[in-house]
Structures are given as C-alpha cells and as structure tokens.
Amino acid sequence: MNSYEDLEKIYRPSATIIIAAKDPVKEYGYDYRILLAKRTMRTAYAPDHFVFPGGVHDANADDDIKWLEYFEEFGIYADDLNKLCLEHLPNRPQPLMTNKTHVSRDISLRLTAVREAFEEVGLLLCLSREQYRREHKGCATNYQKFNRFHWQEKVHNDPYEFLNLCKFLDVVPDIWSLHEWSIWRSPPASLKKYDTILYIVALEQKPQLLLEPTEVEEELWISPKRALHLFKERHIWLPPLQFYELSRLSNILSWSKLRDFAKHRAAFGSTLLMLAYYRCYDSLVGTLPSTYFIMMTSIPKAQKITKKQLFYQNHYQVLNPKQKIFTV
Q1: Are 113 and 54 spatial neighbours (Cβ–Cβ below 8 Å)?
Q2: Alpha helix stretches (DSSP H) within 74-223
C-alpha cells in the first residue's frame, strides 16, 4: 500500500456504538440492557444478524471543517476537543485513528457513531448549550422533541444533513459521552472489510427508538449473558465481534461500574484486534493472535496475514482447550 487512502479503500473506516441503558429490573443479575439491532436482509453487513448500531465513516460529512466552526459557535474550541484526542499515544491503530484531513479521527469517528445511531434507530445523542456548560458525568443525553421521522430520512439519504439537524435544534453531538472501548479489523478473508472503532455510551434509562425500516428490522434490549444464551440456543445470530464484546461485558453486572470503567479505560486507547479463522472438520473457529496457541497447534506462520482460511486437521474440541481466554 502506498498510502492511508489506498488502505482505507480496502478496510473502510467505521464506528459502532454499544448502548448500555440502566434498567430497574435485573436480568441475570444485570441492572442494565444492551441495545442490539436486527439487520434487515437488505443491508450490506450482517443481514438478519443482531448487531450494535453503527456504520461507515463519511469523510465529506464527518471530517468537514464546518464541524469545527460550529463547535466554536458553541464556545467549544480546539483545546476542549483535544481532551478527547489520543494522538499522543504510541501505536494508535493506523490508518483508522491517524488519517485525518480537518478533524481528528477521535472526533470525526465519534461524529460517525452519533450520526449512525440517529440514522439507524432514531437516537439523537446531543447537548444543548446549557447542558454542555454543566459537568459531564459520563452519561449521554438524548433528544426527541422534534420531527425525528423527517430528519432521520434526510440524514439517511445525505449524511451531511446531520450537521444541519444539529444547527436546526441548536445542539451539538454528545461526543463526550462516547468512551472508546475497542478497535477491530475485519479478517482478511472477509468479502467486505472494515476497520471499526467501538464506543460505549451509558444511558440512565431506555429511550424510545425510531427504527429505520430499510436497515433495522427489530430492536432488542438485553443483558449480555441472556444475549449469549439466546445465541447459544440459536434463537438469535451474532457476528463474532458482537459475541466477543458481549462476552467481555458479561463480567460487569453493574451499570454504574460499567460506566465508570469505560470512562476510565478510554484514556488508554485500544489495540487493533483481528480474528484469524481456522476451519476444522466440524466447525469454523475464530482466534485472536497468540504465540502460545500457534506453538501448541504447530501451525507455522499463522500470524501472517493471509486471504486464505487456515485448515486445522482435527475437531474443534481438540482446538478449543489450547486457546487463551480473553476477558475485560
């Protein structure tokens, strides 16, 4: 590859949002629910699967210098925005977190996530001028007192309309409540490839959603453990990324602890993760890079990026005990 632009033609930059809403009724011991959106069969990514809301970064809309001008009108200047930026950290995933034109990717990808959440499920995470002046507590604010259907359709047809929506309502996207959680790259064998950053957002209550009918068929508010149980019983389908992240979340029962942990860990950035697939006799196993795993299975150079799936001549029961377990 000669440039970041060339690489991003293959691995399209995208942003996904994990929405954790507090719930007074506990489920499997959890006092919160995670939003999963069931994709319609017409969507390009994961049709008929349950996923976190999100979508592709639009450079024209999300990296527009007019966002910086609009933030300044709110009294939000470069120094304020830089508090969200982690460009000073070594080894930020490239090119996803380093390729920018006008706006830092730590800002523009948050704009992508907020825009996509509104476009897909009608959830507008934003702050009024008065709300911005208050101390942020790590919880997002959503706004519903406007013609959501009209504006959702406009933003769906033209991502640039999201900036116009914010101007119309005199609000700014609540990018301060989006906490960086993880970064993933699609496996080399995937037909559609993405570099995806995941953010966590904490809501104090479940909002009323407005599903975009061409993209989202159903909403599901569910605890991490119950989602994993339904997937195991084949009642719902989860892509590997969703399965892995729900497994991580299953370790945290408390909404407030999840909110505080997500806010704290976001300052440390993320390591780029990518699954390597091993086709066994009776299944397909996805693994994360692990020298220990490679040595035990005697598969040479398995960490080298390849467009082919690696074949492991055994059953998954033999492969599984040799994997490392990854948790929060």
Answers
A1: yes
A2: 78-82, 105-121, 129-133, 148-157, 161-169
The dihedrals phi and psi of 74, each to the nearest 5 degrees, come to -85, 0
pLDDT in tens, 142-178: 888 999 999 999 999 999 999 999 999 999 999 999 9
- Tokens for 193, please give them: 């490839």
Q: State residue 291's pLDDT score.
A: 40
Distance of CA 311 to the CA centre of its chain: 30
Indicate yes or no: pTM above 0.85. Answer: yes
- Summarize pLDDT for 53-64 with one digit per residue, the tens: 999 999 999 999
What is the rounded CA–CA span in Å between residue 196 and residue 185? Answer: 6
Cβ neighbourhood burial of 278 (10 Å; 0-12, 13-18, 19+) = buried
Domain covering 4-273, topology: Nucleoside Triphosphate Pyrophosphohydrolase (3.90.79)
Is residue 209 within 8 Å of residue 194, measured between CB atoms? no
Helix (H, G, I), strand (E, B) or coil at 310: strand
What pLDDT was estimated at residue 290? 58
- pLDDT for the residue numbered 189: 81
The per-residue pLDDT of the chain, averaged, comes to: 87
Which of 14, 22, 89 has the alpha carbon at shortest distance from 51? 14
Domain borders along the chain are 4-273, 277-322
What are the C-alpha distances in Å from 276 to residues 166, 239, 310? 41, 14, 8
